Structure formats: structure tokens, C-alpha cells
Amino acid sequence: MLNALLSALADASIAPPTVPDATMLRYPDIGRSEIGFVFQGNLWVVPKEGGTARPLTSAAGAEVMPRFSPDGSRIAFV
Description:
Elements: H1 2-13, E1 25-30, E2 34-39, E3 42-47, E4 54-55, E5 67-68, E6 75-76
Antiparallel strand pairs: 1-2, 2-3, 3-4, 5-6
């Protein structure tokens, strides 16, 4: 019994972290160095190489359709 409990605790401690469902990421656009997308109604960007996404908006309402400017310095959205 004790071995089973220890085994269950060990399995739980090495479980992978929960990752947000990528199907919730919408309207992606690729800029020079970042990818812009909408997640839960807010605009986010993440480096093209991968890494941590950071929010750009958090106001009431929903932002959609982000598009990078040709030089990649700005993002337009509705």
C-alpha cells in the first residue's frame, strides 16, 4: 500500500505542466520578429523563436484581427 502511494505521488510530481489549448489562439499574424495573436479577447505577442507571450491589451471588449505594419514596428487591430 505504501509503495503504491509513493509511486502515485512520484508520478504526480513529474506530470507535465498544463498548457493552454492552442485552438484558443486566434487571428495570428507574423511580423519581423514576433507573432501577434488574440487569446481570450486580448492581443498578445510572442517572439518568433518561441518563449513567453506577453499581453498588449487588457481593456474591456474584444480585440481581433491584429496585423503588423510592413516594418514590424506597429500592430493594427479592430
